[in-house]
Design brief:
It is built from 4 helices and no strands. It has 105 residues and is an all-alpha fold. The chain is flat and about 40 Å long.
Length: 105
């Protein structure tokens, strides 16, 4: 169940990372409420996951999911550059996430 918590925590990290853009510096009420809510949910789920998963593994995977998701949605929603070097770097993050999952105890 810890891996499910970690996956969900990572997805909520993507939500709050993208939500930051919509808060306009925390000046818009409802995007701010949604973003802060996603932050809290993400942290709570991460805390539940690290009850049984190694902290280094869980934290790296959590931030990796957030980074990959934020880059992908930044490209789709905001027109962020999708250059080959950026995509290769994202691929390296994915390889790291998979490697950590496969070598976790």
């Amino acid at each position: 169940m810890a891996w499910v918590y970690l996956l969900l925590a990572g997805l909520f990290e993507v939500i709050w990372a993208i939500g930051l853009k919509y808060t306009e510096g925390f000046t818009r009420l409802w995007p701010t409420v949604g973003t802060v809510t996603a932050m809290v949910i993400s942290i709570v789920l991460l805390a539940m996951a690290v009850k049984t998963l190694p902290i280094g593994t869980a934290y790296a995977i959590w931030t990796g999911i957030g980074a990959v998701g934020a880059v992908a949605l930044g490209i789709v929603l905001f027109g962020d550059p999708a250059t080959l070097p950026r995509l290769l770097c994202v691929a390296l993050i994915v390889v790291g996430i998979v490697g950590l999952k496969l070598t976790a105890t």
